[in-house]
Design a protein that fits this description.
Length: about 240
């Protein structure tokens, strides 16, 4: 049986402030750092170990991975950083307060931007200082996004999945992926063939490992969060209540 573990980064500064973050490279809060360490403790307690880790290039994910691996005593684990695991690009919504955006544009429109499968947010002009084409980190990458739907996010995540994750799993490697709410939702949809309606309602809390157990052909056998029910319910409720 193959095991794939997915982990959303710990609470970030803009999670705390209720802002759309996307590709803006904000740090973890002190709570987020604690969540990352606790995730490592939970995985260690479950007897999990890993052969390789994959992570986005954004610091809230890379720091979460670092702190979790310290708890697992896996500081020398091979790590692959890849922009395709980045959070969904929220276009011109990035940096805006979510509640204020609802007040301006209305709850229905913002909900579609946030949770709809095909809806894209207002696009960011390529000459905007926060556009990824202006960031040297992405200098060698073509077709960078200006604002993505979840379907757009899934397209790049799917490419990454088939190129790197599937071969690792087929070699019976234990894989850890540390990424973001929407890039991980895209992965869940891909792995489970989840409907557009179901993925719109699926929430992933910060700092709670997700265990995916698969057969030798990578068909999903079981998926569960590595947390007690009380903690999990509170964490999911917090995500659900976000604007």
């Amino acid at each position: 049986m193959n095991k794939l573990i997915m982990l959303r980064h710990g609470q970030s500064a803009w999670n705390l402030e209720g802002k759309f973050t996307g590709w803006i490279d904000v740090p973890l809060t002190s709570r987020g750092e604690k969540e990352a360490r606790n995730a490592g403790v939970e995985m260690r307690g479950a007897g999990l170990t890993f052969d390789v880790a994959f992570v986005s290039v954004l610091q809230r994910a890379t720091k979460t991975l670092e702190l979790a691996l310290n708890e697992l005593s896996l500081i020398n684990l091979p790590i692959r950083r890849d922009w395709r695991l980045n959070e969904r690009h929220y276009g011109l919504l990035q940096g805006l307060n979510k509640k204020e955006t609802v007040e301006i544009h209305g709850k229905d429109k913002v909900h579609k931007w946030r949770r709809g499968y095909l809806q894209r947010p207002p696009q960011m002009p390529s000459d905007h200082p926060n556009h990824p084409t202006q960031n040297p980190l992405y200098a060698n990458i073509t077709h960078l996004p200006s604002g993505e739907s979840l379907a757009d996010t899934l397209n790049r995540v799917q490419e990454f999945w088939h190129e790197l994750i599937v071969p690792a799993l087929l070699e019976n490697k234990a894989v850890l992926i540390v990424a973001h709410g929407n890039s991980l939702r895209a992965l869940v949809k891909l792995i489970e063939n989840m409907s557009e309606e179901d993925i719109a309602e699926f929430n992933i809390p910060t700092g709670v490992p997700i265990v995916c157990e698969m057969d030798v052909e990578l068909n999903l056998i079981d998926r569960y969060f590595l947390a007690d029910n009380k903690k999990l319910e509170a964490a999911i409720q917090e995500v659900t209540q976000q604007a």
